[in-house]
Amino acid sequence: MALTSAGPAARVMAVFALHATLVASLFLRLPEVQLRLGLSEAVYGLVLLAMPIGVVAGSMLVPALVERWGPRRVLTVALPLATALQIPAAFAVSAPTLGAALLAFGFVFGIVNVTENIEADRVEVASGARIMNRCHGWWALGFLAASLAATGLVAVGLAPVWQFAGHAALMAAATPLVLNGLPESRARTATGPARRFALPGRGTIRIGLFALASLVIEGIMRNWSVIHLRDTLGAAEWVATLALPAVVATQTLGRFLGDGWVIRHGVTRTLRWTSVLLLAGMVGFALAGHVVPALVSCLLIGVGIAVVQPQGFAAAARDGARPAAESVAAFATFGTLVGFMSPPLFGGVVEALGFPVAFALLVPLPVLAILFANRLEP
C-alpha cells in the first residue's frame, strides 16, 4: 500500500518502526564511545543511568502533552528531535558530558515511546482491530534493520557522528510523510480522575511483576551483550555486534506471530511457554564459552521477551481505573525504571564478579515470570 493511502494502523506501525531505529543506532555505537573515553564497566554503567532518568521524566509528562496537543503533533516534533539528540553523544569528551547527552536523548525518547503506545491503543479502540503486538513487531523490525545497518557501518569504519547525522536527516524527512495523514484520535473513557503525573499505581505494579524478567534482561542484553562477546569471548567487533540483531530477529518474529498465539492458546499459556524459552536462553548465554552457542542463546532470549511489552501496554490501557494515557505512561515509567536502570547496576556486578557470573545471577528472573504470567490476563 502506498504511503499516501495508508490507514491509521499502518501509519502508527510506521512510527513504531522509526522510533526503534533510535535505540538501535545509539546503543550499537555507545561501546565505541566507551572505549574512546576509556571508561571502565562501572563508570560506564553509572553514565548509562542518565538515560533512564531522562526517559522517566519525559514519560511522566506525556499525558499532559497529549491532552493539550494530541499524539500526532507531539510525535511530529519529538521523533525528529530525539534522533538529532544522538549527535551530542558522539562529541562527548568525558563521562559527565556523555551523561548529559544521554539525559537529553532519554527525555525526548521517553515522550515518543509513551505517545506512540497511546496512539496505538486509540487506533485499536476506534477500529476494533488488535494491532498492539504488530506495532511492537514493527518496532522490533525497525530495530533489527537499524542494528544490521549500524553493524555494517561499524565494519566499514564510519565514525558514529556521521551515522547519527545521516540518521537525523532521514528522520526529519520521513516523519512528516508518515504523520501528516494520521487523523486526530479520541481517548478511551475512564472512571477514575486524571492525575498531574503518570506515576505507577497498583495496577501497573501487578503487570510489572510478570514483566520484570523481560524488562531487566532486554535492557541488559542491549547494553552488555556486545561487550560480553567482545571482551569475554574474544569476538571481533563486528561479530560481537551480531548479538543484538540475534535477539531482535526472533523478538520480531515472535511479535508478528504473537496475536495468533494469544488467540489460539490464551494470554497465560502463551506468556508461560515464552518465559520457559527465556529461561533456557539465559542459562545458555551464561554458560556459553564460545560465540556460536552465545548467539544461539540470543535467539531463544528474543522469543522469550517478544510479547511481554506489547501485552503489558495492552493490559495497562484496558485498566479503566484511570485514563488510558496515564496507565500506559505509568507502565512505560515502570518499564523504564527497570529496563534502563538494570544495565548500569549490572555494570557494577560485572566489575566485581565478571560477565559469566553476572549473567548467571539473572537466571531466576524467568522463573518469576512463569509464576506471575496470569497477571496479564484480560
Short description:
The chain is mostly helical and 378 residues long. The chain is built from 17 helices and no strands.
Largest sheet: none
Helical segment tally? Answer: 17
Structurally, the number of domains stands at 1
Total beta strand runs: 0
Strand content: under 5%
The coarse overall form would be: globular
What is the radius of gyration computed over CA atoms, rounded to a whole number of angstroms?
19 Å
Mean pLDDT: 86
The CATH superfamily is known as MFS general substrate transporter like domains
CATH architecture: Up-down Bundle
Q: Quote the distance from N terminus to C terminus.
A: 33 Å
Q: What key phrases describe this protein's structure?
A:
378 residues; MFS; 17 helices; Growth Hormone, Chain: A; globular; mainly alpha
Describe this structure in words.
- This is Wenxma_19, whole genome shotgun sequence.
- Pfam families: MFS_1.
- It is built from 17 helices and no strands.
- With 378 residues, the chain is mainly alpha-helical.
- Helix 11 (243-265) packs parallel to helix 13 (291-305) and helix 14 (308-318) runs antiparallel to helix 15.
- The longest helix has 33 residues, at 95-127.
Layout of strands and helices, then pairs:
Blueprint: H1 8-37, H2 41-48, H3 50-69, H4 71-84, H5 87-90, H6 95-127, H7 132-156, H8 160-179, H9 202-231, H10 237-240, H11 243-265, H12 267-287, H13 291-305, H14 308-318, H15 324-353, H16 355-360, H17 364-371
